[in-house]
Amino acid sequence: MADTMQFDLVSPERSLASLQVSAVLIPGADGDMTAMPDHAPVITTLRPGVLRVETPSGTSEYVVSGGFAEINATSLSVLAEKAIPLTEVTRVHIDEMIEDARVAHDAAKEKFKNEPGPVDDAAKLLADMVALGDHINM
Amino acid sequence: MPNLKDLKNRIASVKSTRKITKAMQMVAAAKLRRAQESAEQSRPYTERFNAVMGQLAASVGNSDSAPKLLSGTGSDQVHLLIVMTAERGLCGGFNGNIAKLARVKAQRLIAAGKTVKILTVGKKGRDSLKRDFSDKFVHHVDMSDIKRVAYTDAQAVAKEVLARFDAGEFDVATIFYAKFVNVVTQNPTAQQIIPAAFEAPEDAGASTVYDYEPDEEAILADLLPRGVATQIFAALLENGASEQGARMSAMDNATRNAGEMIDKLTIEFNRSRQAVITNELIEIISGAEAL
């Protein structure tokens, strides 16, 4: 069994990371999961959270706002709408993201008065954003 | 024969025009490099995105419950044309070509009895389409304050389009932009984005079977709106590179033409100067002979 796999983190504007990794912790929409080499092929959407990348030489972390991940035995691609290295994240970033989610939530409440689905989705997104802020102590 | 002072002024003014076009060409060249870089950097995302969407669409696409963004509304009566052009002119046929393509398409649709709505991004396209289709305009996105196109700008356009789609305002959306081939060639392109048309993976048989988390339809519902934004973003970036490329070659031509004009004017200037001198000499000589 190979002990590393190819990992790519890309955002629409640029490619953020492309390296060999031993494990990646992914904040999946249905719960966190760790992908290691020879993982079964999975495509999952992401919730806002921290992506932890473990390489043989060290660990790095990124804050992602959403997107999806494509996992297969030899490679892992994460396509994130917005991804920032954890060390560069500031309170301002988080506040901005929470504010966006709040606006979306209010808009959903306004628009879908009697349909809980979209409102709940927006509420979950907002809660995820807030939890993310708490998680990284800001 | 024009007098010497007029010629001198003409030469001076063409020279200053040449200076301006030369400067614009160099600015465009610098901007082109940056625009090309950002277009290239966005490519991995778009490629992977489309690959995954292709797979998903192939597995869900034919079921009845497929999202409307993928399968369409079931009619193609109302068309939304999203025309993306530059905010500025002086870039050769760039804006004109995109507007022309959109105009031809709009006229064909109208002739076929469809309803056409137009959404413009960038001032130049709006100005040139306004003459023929002023009653068809639904919205205009102003990009004049944006120096460098970011993903959030594309998201804003996508949001506008999706809100209209959700409200049932149109059935089919097509974007018009110029694909960057090289500095002298930019191809005006029309691309349908709603209902989404993704290419199925080439070797469908050999491709891996993925597990989906949550299920395929939920992922698709989440990703399709992003797909619209991604395609608009890619088109905006292509457009940005094309605009600078077109401007660069247009300004290169202008500079060269100005140079030729200066040469011609200078020859004319020298000829008339010599004619004046010859005239004076003849006057002096004939004056001396008369004595």
From TrEMBL, chain A:
Annotated organism of origin: Sedimentitalea nanhaiensis
Membrane topology term: Peripheral membrane protein
SUPFAM superfamilies: Epsilon subunit of F1F0-ATP synthase N-terminal domain (SSF51344)
Classification via InterPro entries: ATP_synth_F1_dsu/esu, ATP_synth_F1_dsu/esu_N, ATPsynth_dsu/esu_N
Record function comment: Produces ATP from ADP in the presence of a proton gradient across the membrane.
Entry similarity comment: Belongs to the ATPase epsilon chain family.
Record's subcellular location: Cell membrane; Endomembrane system
Gene Ontology CC: one annotated term: proton-transporting ATP synthase complex
Known partners and oligomeric status: F-type ATPases have 2 components, CF(1) - the catalytic core - and CF(0) - the membrane proton channel. CF(1) has five subunits: alpha(3), beta(3), gamma(1), delta(1), epsilon(1). CF(0) has three main subunits: a, b and c.
Name of this protein: ATP synthase epsilon chain
Residue ranges of every copy of the ATP synthase F1 complex delta/epsilon subunit N-terminal domain listed in the record: 5-83
The encoding gene: atpC
Single GO molecular function: ATP binding
Pfam family membership, one: ATP-synt_DE_N
This protein's UniProt keywords: ATP synthesis, Cell membrane, CF(1), Hydrogen ion transport, Ion transport, Membrane, Transport
From TrEMBL, chain B:
Membrane topology qualifier: Peripheral membrane protein
Database matches in Gene3D superfamilies: 3.40.1380.10, ATP synthase, gamma subunit, helix hairpin domain
GO molecular function: ATP binding; proton-transporting ATP synthase activity, rotational mechanism
InterPro entries in the cross-refs: ATP_synth_F1_ATPase_gsu (IPR035968), ATP_synth_F1_gsu (IPR000131), ATP_synth_F1_gsu_CS (IPR023632)
Entry's Gene Ontology BP terms: proton motive force-driven plasma membrane ATP synthesis
Annotated GO CC locations: plasma membrane; proton-transporting ATP synthase complex
Subcellular location: Cell membrane; Membrane
Residue stretches spanning the membrane: none
Chief location bin: membrane
Sorted UniProt keywords: ATP synthesis, Cell membrane, CF(1), Hydrogen ion transport, Ion transport, Membrane, Transport
Pfam families: ATP-synt
PROSITE patterns reported in the protein's UniProt record: ATPASE_GAMMA
Job of this protein: Produces ATP from ADP in the presence of a proton gradient across the membrane. The gamma chain is believed to be important in regulating ATPase activity and the flow of protons through the CF(0) complex.
Assembly notes: F-type ATPases have 2 components, CF(1) - the catalytic core - and CF(0) - the membrane proton channel. CF(1) has five subunits: alpha(3), beta(3), gamma(1), delta(1), epsilon(1). CF(0) has three main subunits: a, b and c.
NCBIfam families: ATPsyn_F1gamma, PRK05621.1-4
Family as reported in the entry's similarity comment: Belongs to the ATPase gamma chain family.
Protein name: ATP synthase gamma chain
Taxonomic path: Bacteria, Pseudomonadati, Pseudomonadota, Alphaproteobacteria, Rhodobacterales
Gene, per the UniProt record: atpG
